[in-house]
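Give me a protein, keeping tokens residue-aligned:
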Amino acid sequence: MYRISDYHATKLEPLTFVELNMKEKDIEELLRQNIEITRNGEELMLIVGKK
């Protein structure tokens, strides 16, 4: 994956959720607020429960 800015591409290094100090509830909230990041041209069904 690359970040493109002003015709310059910078390679992004992958990070794990552990490195980002994210728990499952954090990932669920991230997806809830930004569901469009899961779309890549395919139909998806995501089930996110919140207690």
